[in-house]
Design brief:
11 helices, single chain, four-stranded parallel β-sheet, alpha/beta, seven-stranded mixed β-sheet, binds adenosine-5'-triphosphate
């Protein structure tokens, strides 16, 4: 292993996701294991610019593996989008004798990392932390599994009230550009319909399907809608349309929103975070830079950051078929 790296920084950037703390813990403890100094940067790239750094050792990350959010806080930084801001960040890193950093975040954070690497030839590794699971080069991003479980649990509760009052519920889940959360949560919660951005079924098809399921004896229904679904203008318009055309149903809308981002990470996310942190430090010590750590076929893999940013994830066609069969 290349030992020219003697101090590594870790930061969380962009939207928070469950499992970020477990990843911070893993990075810090991997540094301690390899006898490398570690520093935490607070508030993402903004904290990097402002020098909001704190030395960390194995004991600094006690009892955080089970905590949601991020102890290092997260931020979006306009200053880091400017050359001047990034230069300040570079001087801060140099002043603190930092030789490399690990950024835990989404594709925006990786884009910033790549720009920074190009300008200053600074070694960087990315760990994908976002609940949307929309990053190319990994089967799972940190927080996705927890978000699925949180949403399924919420929908189970909504179903209790839906069936008690013979109601039709539209439940909006996160996913502005991709339907991974909606599709998995919909199948997991036994939804009657799942609406995702990748497929525009059209209002008439939706109405038809809901009428059929009503005729077949269903007295309540759950429709899971991804934030970015294009079937209607938004979930409230969808609900209005169905209520107008199916007056027999009382229609309600529930937007799960930010609750999907919070909470204690699932065991899967904790283990994934621990593995990704270890791999991130090993990769830097191997002298590699500009990679994102991912998991495929239960193996840790590396994807160049530019591919991770540009590549697109595909919706699971087999799961769409499963969902079609389950909603018969
Ligand atoms: P999420 O998936 O939650 O949106 P993200 O990492 O994609 O997470 P962004 O807000 O897109 O979140 O990006 C985080 C930060 O990365 C930005 O606030 C900015 O500081 C930095 N960043 C993003 N794009 C660039 C860029 N082109 N140049 C420099 N910095 C950038």
């Amino acid at each position: 292993m290349n030992k020219t790296i003697s101090k590594i920084a870790v930061l969380t950037s962009g939207g928070d996701s469950p499992g970020m703390n477990a990843a911070i813990r893993s990075v810090v403890r991997s540094c301690a294991y390899h006898r490398i100094d570690c520093v935490g940067i607070f508030r993402g790239y903004q904290g990097m610019i402002e020098g909001d750094f704190k030395e960390m050792n194995a004991r600094s990350v006690n009892h955080i593996i089970n905590k949601g959010g991020t102890i290092l806080k997260s931020a979006r930084s306009k200053d880091f989008m400017t050359k001047e801001g990034r230069l300040k960040a570079f001087y801060q890193l140099k002043n603190h004798n930092v030789d490399a950093f690990v950024v835990i975040g989404g594709d925006g954070s990786f884009t910033g990392a790549m720009v920074f690497n190009k300008e200053f030839d600074f070694p960087i590794i990315g760990i994908p932390g976002t609940i949307d699971n929309d990053i190319y080069g990994t089967n799972f991003t940190l927080g996705y599994d927890t978000a699925l479980n949180t949403a399924v649990e919420a929908i189970d509760k909504i179903r209790d009230t839906a069936s008690s009052h013979n109601r039709l519920f539209f439940v909006e889940v996160m996913g502005r550009d991709v339907g991974h959360i909606a599709l998995n949560v919909g199948v997991g919660a036994g939804a009657e319909e799942i609406l995702i951005p990748e497929e525009d079924l059209g209002l008439d098809r939706l109405l038809d399907s809901l009428k059929k399921s009503r005729k077949s004896g269903k007295t309540s229904s759950i429709v899971v809608v991804a934030e970015g679904d294009k079937t209607g203008d938004n979930v409230f318009e969808l609900a209005k349309y169905i209520e107008e055309h199916m007056p027999t149903y009382e229609v309600r809308v529930s937007v799960l929103g930010h609750m999907q981002r919070g909470g204690s990470p699932s065991c899967f996310d904790r283990v994934l975070a621990s593995r990704m942190g270890v791999k991130a430090i090993e990769t830097l010590l191997d002298g590699k830079s500009n990679y994102m750590i991912g998991i495929k076929d239960n193996k840790m893999i590396l994807t160049p950051l530019d591919m991770a940013i540009k590549g697109e994830t595909e919706i699971d066609a087999e799961l769409i078929q499963v969902s079609d069969i389950m909603t018969t």
